[in-house]
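Reopening this ticket.

The earlier resolution said the output was attached, but the attachment link was broken on my side. Pasting everything inline this time so it's all in one place.
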Amino acid sequence: MLTFFTILIVLALLMAFRVPIAFAMGIAGTLGLAAQLGVRPALAVLERTFFDTSASFILVAIPLFILMAELLTAGDVTRRAIVACQSWIGHIKGGLAIATVAASVILAALVGSSTASTAAMAASAFPEMRAHKYSDRLSTAVVSVGGTLAVVVPPSIVLVVYGVLTETSIGKLFIAGIIPGLLTASGLALVIKIIAHTTDQAPKGDPFVLKKAVKDSRHVIPMVLLMLAVIGAIYGGIASPSEAAALGVMGSLLIVLLQGTLSFVQFNKSVSGAIRATVMIVAIVGCSAIFSNYLAFTRITHRMLEFVATTDMSRETIMAIIILVLLIMGMFMDQLAILSLAMPLAFPTAMALGYDAVWFGIVVTKTVEIGLLTPPLGLNAYVASAQTRVPLGTIFRGILPFLGMEVIVLLVLLFFPQITLFLPELMTR
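Inline output:
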C-alpha cells in the first residue's frame, strides 16, 4: 500500500509540472510495475500492454471521426450550418442564441470534439450575436455551453475513449447519447428564453425572410443527410462505428469537393490535424492501460470491490460519491484525463453495484461535460475567451444559469435511466 501511495504522489507531481497526462500515467504505471515485479517483467508488461491497446481495431473510429470533422470545418460547412439556423429562428427574442445551440447540435453530430465546436461557434456565431446587440456575457456563455454538446451527442470522441477503456459497445453508447444530447440542448434553449424575456441581454434579430432561410439551408442539407446516414448505419446494425466513420469521411469529402470549398492546402491541414489529435488520444488510451495493469497487480481494484460488497452504504450513495469526485476532477482536468484516471476504479465499482455499462458511460460523459464549464479550468470558457477576447470572469458569470440546467439534466439521467437506455434497448430487439 505504501508503494501505491508513492506512485500516486509521483503521478501528482508529474501532472503538477505539466507533463502530458499520457506520459504522466505511463511513467507512474511503469515505475509501479517495476517496484511490484522487477524491471525486466515490468518492461515486458509495458510492451505487451501498449501494443495490445493501440492495435485495437475499434480505435480506427477515432482518426476517421476526427478527419470527418476536420474536413467539414476546413470546407466551411460548419459555418454555413450556423448561418442556416440563424436564418430560421434568429428573428425571435433570443433567437440568435437558440440558433447557436441548434447549430451546436449539428456540429456535435459531425465534429465530435467539444473544444473544436466551441472554437467554431466563437469564430462564427459570437460576432453575429455581438452585431445584434447581444451582451458579451450571454453570447460567450452560449458559445461555451453549446460546445459541450459534442461530449454526449454522437459521434463523441469521449464516448469512443470510454468504450475502449471499459470494453463497452461504442455503437450502443452513440445511440444512448442521442436523447440526453437533445434533452440538454432543449434545456439550454429554455434557459436562453428565460434570460431573453427577463433581461435585455438578447434582443430580437433581423426579420424572418423565407427565401433567405431556404437559400442558406441548401448547403446544410447534405451535412444533415450525412449525419443521419452515419447514425442510422450504426443504429440499424448496417455498419460498426468504425465502418460508419469511414462512411462519414467519404461523405464529408464528397460534400466539400462538390461544393468547391476545400483546397489542397486545407486538405493537408485537415489530415495533419487528425493525425496529431489521434496520436494524443491513442497515447492516453495506451498509457492508461499501463496504469490500469499496475492497479491490477496491486489488487487495489479488488480491494475496492471488496469494500463495495461489505460496506453499509447504499449503492446510490456510492454512485453519488463517484459523481462528486468526477465533478471535482472536472474543475482541474480535461475530459480524456478524467476518463483515463478514473475509469480503472470507477467502472468496476459501478458494475459491481449492478449499474448498466452504457448508462454509466452517458452519466460519466455528462458529468465531465459539466467540468468543461466549471472554474478554475473550464476548458470551453478558456477557448471562448481566447477566440472572442472577452474576460474569463464575464464568461463564467454568464455560464452560471446554464450550469444549473446542466445539473438538472444530470439528475434526470441519474433518476430515470430509461431515458438513456430506451434507444439502445430497441437496437437489440
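Reporter confirms the inline version is readable. The mean pLDDT is 82. The chain has one domain: 2-427.
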